[in-house]
């Protein structure tokens, strides 16, 4: 499971060091790859990173979506088509240029653990998103209490 937040630096080749605690979670799954794809919050764009095992579950569900459904096609065109397998080499991955551009990643980034995935944010965009999340946390947590959280 991916937990916690951490600040990192992306080098000019798009290489990103994976935190040891995230690497441990991948090692437990026997995985030396991450599947990275684009995600849009409606306000900002970040990247989502999955262990291959967890990504396969998403792909299997996506493969069963109706072919002639506009929402399904939008999902496949944006989210699924953006997925790239990134091998972990010496504790780092290289994020492809197109994904870095889509997410607006600069040098300073933040990794945000979300259990089965983690997000990769440009630091400035993350600070804005975190502030919005902080402001709506109370209201949203009340909704989630219906799910036993």
Give the second-level CATH assignment, the architecture: 3-Layer(aba) Sandwich
- Give the strand order, joined by hyphens, for the main sheet: 1-7-8-4-3-5
Question: Would you count the extended β strands for me?
Answer: 8
Beta-strand portion reads 25-35%
What descriptors fit this protein?
single chain, 149 residues, Chemotaxis protein chec, six-stranded antiparallel beta sheet, two-stranded antiparallel ribbon, 5 helices, 8 strands
Describe, in plain words, how this protein is organized in 3D.
The chain has five helices and eight strands; from the N terminus they run ββαββααββαββα. The longest helix has 22 residues. With 149 residues, it is of the alpha+beta class. The strands form two sheets. The chain has a six-stranded antiparallel sheet with strand order 1-7-8-4-3-5, with helices on both faces. It has a two-stranded antiparallel ribbon with strand order 2-6. It has a single domain, classed as Transcriptional regulator MraZ domain (Chemotaxis protein chec). Helix content is 41%, strand content 28%. It is globular and about 40 Å long.
């Amino acid at each position: 499971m991916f937990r916690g937040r951490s600040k990192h630096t992306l080098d000019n080749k798009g290489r990103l060091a994976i935190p040891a605690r995230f690497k441990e979670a991948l090692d437990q799954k026997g995985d030396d790859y991450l599947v990275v794809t684009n995600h849009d919050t409606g306000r900002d764009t970040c990247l989502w990173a999955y262990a291959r095992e967890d990504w396969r579950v998403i792909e299997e569900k996506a493969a069963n979506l109706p072919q002639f459904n506009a929402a399904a096609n939008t999902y496949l065109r944006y989210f699924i088509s953006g997925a790239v397998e990134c091998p972990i080499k010496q504790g780092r991955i290289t994020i492809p240029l197109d994904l870095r551009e889509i997410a607006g990643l600069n040098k300073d980034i933040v990794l945000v653990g979300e259990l089965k995935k983690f997000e990769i944010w440009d630091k400035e965009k993350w600070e804005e998103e975190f502030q919005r999340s902080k402001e709506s946390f109370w209201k949203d947590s009340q909704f989630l209490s219906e799910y036993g959280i």
